[in-house]
Design goal:
The radius of gyration is 24 Å and the shape is globular. Helix content is 62%, strand content 2%. The chain has one domain: Orthogonal Bundle (Ammonium transporter fold), CATH 1.10.3430. By secondary structure, it is mainly alpha-helical.
Length: 498
């Protein structure tokens, strides 16, 4: 039965792509525009009037077409940078996130976490090129894209995507695969909330459905627009609201954090939670994973600029200092409360800082990023201790407490630290071709729209999906399998044979 449900889930997802109709128009690739409109003067030249013959002397001039616009050419330096950034983000997921999560679970569940993350990366990679890229980054409506680019229709080696600078292009294929890595890590993040008791088959089915009904609409709402050469074209709902999200505070972190929270609530607590010791089995693995995440995050944040320019450098600097500030903040607060600084504390704080700076990376100044990181480290420590205890849920690896809460702080904080008065870069007005006057209160309203939409959208979609999967096939492994460990009962392997 489980195998049939997995197959049905995959067939339904591929079926969405198969519904593409010929009326869908080719569209720009979301943040960058994929096409350039021809000059208006070229249209009349292609269609001469059929009546009133012109004088013979005028005929050659009338038949001369306007010069065709030169086809866009990819910038080699920017393209190279985007290839590197894409590889860095892949490293964030495999092996970075896998090792970070794997070290945090008990030894008997190490391989189950690694297998879930690796398999999810494989599945999302296929679904992204089949229909995911099109639904996120092609025209449709304000909430989700269409299927004009399903199966990468029209996205070949000659297709170009405009960056955030008018007239600067990268191959659309490199933009597509860069965004693939974002989708994959977002779904993989959810694994941590359900670790040590979720069925492998149920996790895969949820990942496919959640990717389709939560991730893709959020990506479209936040990141889809016509690009600098077509900035007045229709855009995603939240982009149109003016929400700022440089690299995924809402699309990735709040989205995944809410899914993990809903999963933890529907799934219930682990056997023995709060009564038995459930310490991480290898903080060495966790530290290695956190380090790989930090390095990979430079591709995540700086790569989101789509160009190797000063803004990419700013995003990289902010990713360093915000992360460092958050790690220190968490560690020192924990030190004051518990009397000892911990490796788990400083690495968890660092990840919280990475989360918070994600939406602000290209907008904040370094000093603003430090403050944002320091605040996030302390608040996220409270969220995984006080708030978690208060609400009584068992989010195994604190995905909601770090990614959900950290994403909210970062998304709202972006509206503050982006202000030029506080060292931020402000917001560029493409119509006026200059940095716009900054209205912090209006920007905060836009940021709250984005946060609220992500919380409600992901929360509702995730809860419904978890309930349906639990109803039809069950989410949780039997008690005896949970006690023995999922490595042997689900996969027939052990992480360590000593």
């Amino acid at each position: 039965m489980k195998k049939w449900l997995i197959a049905l889930s995959m067939v339904c997802s591929f079926g969405i792509a198969g519904m593409s109709n010929a009326d869908d128009t080719a569209a720009p690739a979301a943040a960058p525009a994929a096409t350039v409109a021809a000059p208006d003067a070229a249209a009349p030249a292609a269609a001469p009037a059929p009546e009133a013959a012109a004088p013979a002397a005028a005929a050659p001039a009338a038949a001369t077409p306007a010069p065709a616009a030169a086809p866009p050419v990819a910038d080699k330096g920017d393209t190279t940078w985007m290839l590197v950034a894409t590889a860095l983000v892949i490293m964030m997921t495999i092996p970075g996130l896998a090792l970070f999560y794997g070290g945090l679970v008990r030894e008997k569940n190490m391989l189950s976490v690694l297998t879930q993350i690796f398999t999810i990366f494989c599945i999302i990679s296929i679904l992204w090129v089949v229909y995911g890229y099109s639904m996120a980054f092609s025209p449709g409506n304000e909430f989700v894209g269409g299927l004009s680019k399903a199966f990468l229709k029209g996205v070949d080696v000659n297709a170009m995507a405009e960056t955030f600078s008018k007239g600067v292009y990268i191959p659309e294929l490199v933009f597509m695969v860069f965004q693939l890595t974002f989708a994959a890590i977002t779904v993989a993040l959810i694994v941590g909330g359900l670790a040590e008791r979720v069925k492998f088959s149920a996790m895969l089915i949820f990942g496919v459905l959640w990717f389709t009904f939560s991730y893709l609409p959020m990506a479209h709402m936040v990141w889809f627009w016509g690009g600098p050469s077509a900035f007045s074209d229709p855009s995603g709902f939240l982009f149109g609201k003016g929400a700022l999200d440089f690299a995924g505070g809402t699309v990735v972190h709040i989205n995944a954090g809410m899914a993990a929270l809903m999963g933890a609530i529907v799934l219930g607590k682990r056997i023995g939670y709060g009564k038995e010791a459930m310490a991480p089995h290898s903080l060495v693995m966790t530290m290695i994973g956190a380090s790989l995440l930090w390095v990979g995050w430079f591709g995540f944040n700086a790569g989101s600029n789509l160009e190797a320019t000063g803004t990419a450098v700013l995003a990289m600097v902010n990713t360093i200092v915000a992360t460092a500030a958050a790690g220190l903040s968490w560690m020192f607060v924990e030190w004051m409360i518990k009397g000892k600084p911990s490796m788990l504390g400083v690495t968890s704080g660092a990840v919280a800082g990475l989360v918070a700076v994600t939406p602000a990376a290209g907008f904040a100044g370094p000093m603003g990023a430090i403050v944002l990181g320091a605040v996030t480290g302390a608040v996220c420590l409270w969220s995984v201790t006080g708030l978690k205890h208060m609400l009584g849920y068992d989010d195994s690896l604190d995905v909601f407490g770090v990614h959900g809460i950290g994403g909210m702080i970062g998304a709202i904080g972006t509206g503050i630290v982006a202000s030029p008065a506080l060292g931020g870069s402000g917001v560029f007005d493409y119509a006026a071709n200059k940095v716009a006057d900054y209205d912090m209160s209006a920007q905060l309203v836009s940021q709250l729209w984005a946060v609220g939409t992500a919380v409600v959208w992901s929360g509702v979609v995730s809860f419904i999906l978890f309930k349906l999967i639990d109803m039809f096939m069950g989410l949780r492994v039997p008690e005896e399998e949970e006690r023995e460990g999922l490595d042997t009962t689900t996969h027939g392997e052990r992480a360590y044979n000593m």
